[in-house]
Protein 1
Amino acid sequence: MSDSEESVPTMPVLQKRPRLSISAHTDGSGDDGDDNESLSTISTLLEEASNRSDTPTQQSGGRRFGRGKNKLKKCKLQYKCTNFFKEDHRQPIFGISINQNQREGHPVVFATTGHNRISLYECQENGKIKLLQAYADPSTDENLYCCAWTFDDATGQPLLAAAGLRGIIRIISPITTQCVKHFVGHGNAVNELRFHPMDPNMLLSVSKDHALRIWNIKTDICVALFGGVDGHRDEVLSGDFNIDGSKIVSCGMDHSLKIWKTDHPKVVAAMEESYTYNLAKSTRPFPTYSHHFPDFSTRDIHRNYVDCVRWFGNFILSKSCENCIICWRPTEGDSKGTDGHVSIIHRFEYKECDIWYMRFSLDFWQKCNHDVYDQLM
């Protein structure tokens, strides 16, 4: 449940700089209206990363993928870098999210989180980036790790959720330039936020407190809690809904990946009740549903922290600090339990990413070449 506004200070909006734009790095020029005090050109330095860039020690006997016979193949890139810049707080940027709810033809808008700052940008022609808004958390101790876009189902206006070290989930309205809500419930840092693909009000949060939660941001209710007896035994680093929202996959520092079904009758009932529950007419708090047993669990994919996981149709993509993203799926016929079997489909190997808490993502529709998909199936 959300705390009162008195217990958590409101988040001020930094001065807008609508004229700020950063030109493509290829020519090194900038607009006359650029504000160099806010953003400056970046030269990537891994030494500036915080403690989340410290790679955990590889377990003895653990095999590191990408060595030996599986040598990397040089492939021609299908993209090119058009711009890069550095935010003035000079701290690592942990989260980035593109607003995929924009109408066709509208410019691409994305948000970043780092230090105690949330910044909103617009992509313009010729690789230019325009700063739209910036928000600063009132606590200088805050370190924001993640953000996720959704929209108000009544007005259609965009909303942005952000959270981090202090475990406070903030809901920001870029239209009113205000933090309209905040939620406190996790006992520690929130590492990732994801919205339900079919319900813009259902927000998934994963935390250092070993648990996952689903929130109804419209009615301010914590709908469900996933964790406990057979849940994660260490910090949960990442989670994701599948394309229809019927399942959640999660991963963390315990090297495990777990699947939780959200189409379970009790979870569905809790989601429906969260829309009709009225605290003023009830003598008890909302009965948050607690789910202690994942529907599938494995530790056979990675030998180290699993810091990012995404659904890819019926497959799952996950990565650790092994210079490798692995495509896999649970073996058919597996049910509840902690000893599930997996089929590894493919290893996507790359170089120079053996630090942890580096994320990847897919487009909203999880598109892939149909011929490739048929071969994998």
Protein 2
Amino acid sequence: MENGLARRQLLGMLSLAVPAMVLAPDAAQAARGKGGAVPFRAGKAMLGSYLSLRGKTLTESLALRREQLGREQRIIHRYYPWSGYAPVSEPEVPSSAVLMVSWDGTTHQRITSGKSDRNIALMATRLAGMKRPVMLRWGWEMNGNWFSWDGAHNGKKPAGYVKSWRRMHRIFRENGATNVAWVWSPNWNSGPDVSWNRFQNYYPGDSYVDWVGVSGYNFSKESPKTLFTPIVSAYGKRKPIVLAETAAIGHGKNTKGPWIKKLSQYVTETPSIGAVVWFDTDNQKGTSRNFRPDTDAAALAAYRSMARRARFAG
């Protein structure tokens, strides 16, 4: 979500609803055994979050959610800048959790020209050295117009993104990062919504992607079906799906809980979804929105119920 929130809110308000569809039941069978270094488990979705709670460390935030939900987070989501930060470990992330890293990008030309090879190799060796499963979500929301790596900032040529992705994938492989699962993650709707900027144009190819992700929030009261069905329908039979960024904001009293219930039901009915990562924060720069699932008793009860369902026991 970083830096793109305001523009995505506007896009959400302008977008037309997508007809609701549910993936065919055989999708789980088609995706069985997939997911790369972070295997997809048919019928089981991992539930995790990006945790940034005002006044609390990550360790304290994890303890709060553990107490509220009666379970651990299966995915811990972190954001890394493109350069200047390549950690050798994540001591606050429990060994039982999968680390999901959303790694910033740069212009396509700086990658395809080879100018960023050393930076890419450094991150590859650092993540490989962690010796833990990592979901790498590089250059997310590339079909928007708010990041340096999106098509709008690169000559309206998605092919440059694809070429960048494949180069990075090769460098990671050459540096032994076999513990990394590659997550390709567009925004739920494109901005601008024109033919050259369709999310399909940015897809690197099945050989280069382990999970397909998607960002989607109910900024304009969109349902989970509206937000996620286009991606599920396009890739769910070939790749496991991770709802890489999602959360509900309130639209009046007692509106967040019902949306969480809809999300829980949608995931239950969509077998290709193998992970759900909540954007759990009241501390998002540039906005007063509160994405926490415990803003009121009904919302927390709905979230707790979802977390304890067998479908979310991945």
Protein 3
Amino acid sequence: MLAAAQAVAAVVVLVRLARGRRRLPPLAAPEPDTSPDTRARGGSAAWTGHGGTRGGGSPEISVVIPARDEERRLGPCLRAVLADPAVTEVIVVDDESSDGTARIAAARGATVVRGRPLPDGWVGKQWALHQGLREARGEIVVTLDADTRPRPGLFGALDAALGDHDLVSAGPRFVCDGLAEQALHASFLATLVYRFGPIGPPAPPPPHRVVANGQCLAFRREAMRRADGFARVRGHMTDDVALARTLAADGWRVGFLDAGGLLEVDMHESAAEVWREWGRSLPLRDVTRPAWQAADLAVVWLAAALPALRLAAGRPTRLDLTLLAVRVLLTTALRRSYARPGAGVLLSFLLDPATAVRLTQATLRPVRTWRSRAYSLGRPAFADAVTRGARPAPPDRNAPR
């Protein structure tokens, strides 16, 4: 019985991995406009100050950064965003921080929005983004977490990607410096691939299987305002996937694209923090129905954890060895997801049993605290079942760009 179940899990994993062979092209910085008229203006998109108009006919881009007690991490993010000529407005929503977040944002030159008290039923990040969206003036809005490190060309690439999508999220390269931190992080990352396949499948998945990365999202301002997206997922701890699945169910074209060398994220400072914080959100418990949660956990246990355990016990089967070979090949591919890949990525398969334990634990006993706030939001509201009034129409595909 166990062998049959493991064989089914192996087939599921192989099918999901095979999708990556025809994955969508990664986000890439657009080629610079070198026409004489552009050279005379001094570039394709010259900075003219907050709210100004840029040359080249490109849409104005507002960047919204929700920040709660981000004094230590906000500076590098703002420095990179403010230096990009594609950005016309930078808004930092100070979500009732107790440190110098607002002071640093203002000193760097960002527009600081003082977040209002958190209403009942809202999770803090959605509330901050909801307020930031109300203040944004650009046709395109990009939301970034404070721990992101954008590189030149990211915002132009996101703008270009919105020609084919209504909501775009970017997969970054991760900064993980310690051996244990990188190994655990890569093991967690592998579970996402086992459950959902590589970034950018050739055909969009059904809305209830869409995934997204809330560290970097891009969309058209007016379309998101009409959809009232952040309010509709106000109570979700897994806010990014809830938003993507809700909008996909409305008919939005949602793209999760590889940002390649255009975005880095320094999420955690230690392996313990990876275990505690990322392990808390990865099960996607509040946006996934119980049957899918059980199926996803079964795939992780049977296709990743069990082969590693049997290898450690010196009793691997042929199927175990096949799955371990697949996992090693995946490890090679995962190296591209790290800014400085090291031995931790290569050794990550050894931690797959521990990762399976953590995912199971977080599924059965979800944590409802984040950034010194405790949430009591009641029964999970699954994103594929969100219905708040009439379903908004999908964005106008022919809206002026």
Protein 4
Amino acid sequence: MQISPAEVAETLAMVSQQNLDIRTITLGLNLRGCTHEDVDTVAAKAYDRMARAAERLVPTADQLEREYGIPIVNKRIAVTPIAEVAAATTASDLSPIARAMDRAAQAVGVDFVGGFSALVQKGASHADERLMSSIPEALATTDKVCASVNLGSTRAGINMDAALRMAHVIRRCAELTADRDCIGAGKLVVFCNAVEDNPFMAGAFHGSGEADEVINVGVSGPGVVRAVLADLPEDANLTQVAEAIKATAFKITRAGELMAREAAQRLGYAQGILDLSLAPTPAEGDSVAQILEAIGVGTCGGPGTTAALALLNDAVKKGGVMASSSVGGLSGAFIPVSEDAGMIRAAECGALSLEKLEAMTCVCSVGLDMIAVPGDTSVETLLGIIADECAIGMINNKTTAVRIIPAIGKQPGERLNFGGLLGYAPVMPVNAHAGSVFARRGGRIPAPLNSLKN
């Protein structure tokens, strides 16, 4: 499909007035050629590969930003899950690889690098075990590295042994970075049904079915959608609301398609997916919560919120797939508490609870994202939250995730401040009635009947 000058002009108006941006250009890199039995050799080879391949990523993105006038907020790298790359190493600590990834990110000027990851939905290899054990040290000693672990899938069920282990890892990440508002846990996400072409952090990694180098782009535009809904008459019915969102999502996706096409062509890499996710920022007006309130919900978290979010998520996807044949990743609406000014206000006034957020994850793009909980939250409670969210993803054949941050030394009503796109997170109360027996049974929750599709 050709992109007309009129579409470009309309997009520029969205940029100047409604906070439209390209949230990220993410370079996916295959690191499987970096394997070696010595961990330091793996680290050196990973650094060289990343530094060479991403050398022109930031300059190219900056040039596109100047030419088209559309902000590109983040430039990122996602690599092959490091547990796979490090399978031949004999070292128990894989954090030297993470530090090499961090140095490479610094050298080429990207904002984040993802892929310190393992996929353990059906079982964990020795390399997976070492990777999970290395995550706290890796995230505590790096600035830009993000980690993820896939704990379950509709096909495999949920690996509850790994889920309990990751509950301990999350708490340890928070403890090791308590002097930095527990940011280590903010760079770690656990998944069910993780996708292999996600350009968003902290869950981005480069999947096994991808080319050696791929450009994936994530577009964001909650401010644009909110502005369109604000112009609708109050008596517009919900079908009209959905149609307005679809039309807006189409226009936003067209802007992303242009930037993805140009970036891939100029870098000489394969064009991957275009992820149309309404990813909010702490900026006023750039909020998914405020979209839900513009649809008619009194305050985000109140009755009707889940239904409004379902309408929004579906309309965004329908509009996006008409604008590009490469829509993928997650695509829909994110509901990260710390990154959304409206979500923060709703949580602080008590309208938005952890339980309501869990219900909303049944119909949104991902799951419980950037949620701060009291520092004394037990491992059993963390495990229960993770298991509940994985179960939603497994049964509904969708991606769900948990990025939860135990706020060490803090209680409900206090805050963790991260700055930048990560914003600040009010510490939310949790239901503390988790059972220790359930948490420690282990084993695997079997795959559901709807996994049998052949």
